[in-house]
Amino acid sequence: MTIAAWQRELFTLGSARFRAPVALRFGVAVGLPLAAGLALGAPGAGVIAAFAALLTTICDVGDTHRARFVTMTCGALGIVAGGVLGAHFGDHPYAHESLVTAAALAVGLLSGPHPALSVVARFFALAVVVGAGVEWHSTAFFFAGVGGVASALLVTALTWALLPRDRTNPVDWRTRIDTAFAFDRPDIRYALALTVAAAAALFAANLLALHKPYWAAVTVLMVMRREGTESLRLTLHYAVGTLLGLVAAAACVALAPATPALAAIAIATAAVTRIALAINPSLGFASFTIFVLLLLEVGMPHTGFSWVLWSTRAYDVAVGCALAILGTLAARRTAPTTL
After folding, report:
1. Each residue of 164-182: pLDDT tens digit?
2. CB-based contacts of 100: which residues, under 8 Å, 6+ apart?
């Protein structure tokens, strides 16, 4: 199987009859901790838990359900560890920039031609950057994250036991595991390109003295891929989806600014994110972006819609997408064409 093929097949669902159980699994896994946080008067904890739940549920990569559950567990450990690390060191002088560049380097080195490891590494780095950006206490982040991943794993086990199981992923997670940690020249080259792109994203945001300039770096980490021109079309899909998601999220906040409404929309987009990824990468990234941005509004609500805030986010995302595309082209094809 070519790398481009497994990129397309990574989130395949197969028959349309599996879409309802998948949407239910995602919606319940994310909705339970978010609703609990809001009901207990701790929206921040609910937001962190919901974020961890969605990332953990997306990590179900493997050719059997057992393998997928193992990958989800590994992803959960990485997400919680990354979030705690970012939250603990993020408020130290220069620690934010150091954490972002280190996370980008780790993603670059571990995002070789191995589907499961690539997803887990990318979500670990994403959790590091988010943990540093939200400036939460590391202990609170830990307990909220654990609650989120517990919700994801429990709901997954229950839905697989009670409902028709969606098809297993055609990519064997053991494929090329022997070379995943080789760190050869292509791995190092891509890692350096990703690190430079993430650092440049931070620099571009800091240049304008923007508050919390981590959005550009988050965009780079999520959008940039290592197969160079071979995956440029996929990278463009991710970039377009991210930008569309930002516009849609801004519209939701402007039209329905109440916290319960935003929480309900966030849960709905989480429910369809996996299905959207299976249909089209742009739709998947648009759903994911809407979910994350609305979570921020729920956890750290602002006084209504702010053009300054959303124009800042638009700038960050646009810069991140541009740097990710340039980085993808600069790295060229740095991975084998087949698995």
Report:
1. 666 555 555 555 555 555 5
2. 128, 129, 132, 198, 199, 202, 214, 217
